[in-house]
Design goal:
The chain has about 170 residues and is of the alpha+beta class. The protein has one domain: Aminopeptidase (3-Layer(aba) Sandwich), CATH 3.40.630.30. The protein has six helices and seven strands, in the order βαααβββαβαββα. The protein has a seven-stranded mixed sheet with strand order 1-2-3-4-5-7-6, sandwiched between helices. Strand 4, helix 4 and strand 5 (about 115-120) form a beta-alpha-beta unit. The chain is globular and about 40 Å long.
């Protein structure tokens, strides 16, 4: 198993984070999206490192192999964003995605969040299974709070509430 560590985002990570996310979005999933379409990647600090938010990276040596972000989504709520793991570091055996999610959930617990919400795309079946195994339940778009920052490409939504798994 690789020696992957989960670290808080550092300014020096910005370019590698953007490169990883864009590579997966564009080349693996064929999503027509650019860095300009994602201002949160250009300024992680302004988007994620405020309020109850946070951003973490998975390092394998010097290489960034995974990311996860939490946006402050209003009182008691956070929005999970930018969960990406490099293809060769995915899978239950390696546990990179699980460890990233655990770090985010620990942070959310420490800050007293009651709900973690996320949006994803319908074709991301492996991601759906991952979130469901972690205790997230699928919800209708209309059940999202008005403070949830929607992304135009997302149409499948999940929620994890404190009474189920967060605490």
């Amino acid at each position: 198993m690789p020696d992957v560590r989960i670290d808080s985002f550092a300014v020096d990570d910005r370019d590698a984070v953007a490169a990883l996310v864009l590579d997966i979005q564009q080349n693996e999933f064929g999503i027509a999206i650019t860095l300009a379409d994602q201002p949160d990647l250009a300024d992680v600090e302004a988007h994620y490192l405020r309020g109850t938010g946070g951003f973490w990276v998975a390092h394998d040596g010097a290489a960034i192999v995974g990311t996860i972000g939490l946006l402050d989504a209003g009182p008691g709520a956070g929005a999970l964003r930018k969960m990406f793991v490099r293809r060769d570091r995915r899978g239950k055996e390696l546990g990179v995605a699980r460890r990233l999610l655990e770090r985010l959930l620990g942070h959310a617990r420490e800050r007293g969040l009651e709900r973690i919400l996320l949006g994803t795309r319908p074709e991301m079946h492996a991601a759906h299974r991952f979130y469901e195994r972690a205790g997230f339940l699928r919800i209708a778009e209309g059940d999202l709070p008005p403070t949830f920052p929607r992304m135009r490409v997302d149409s499948v939504f999940y929620e994890l509430v404190a009474t189920r798994r967060l605490v």
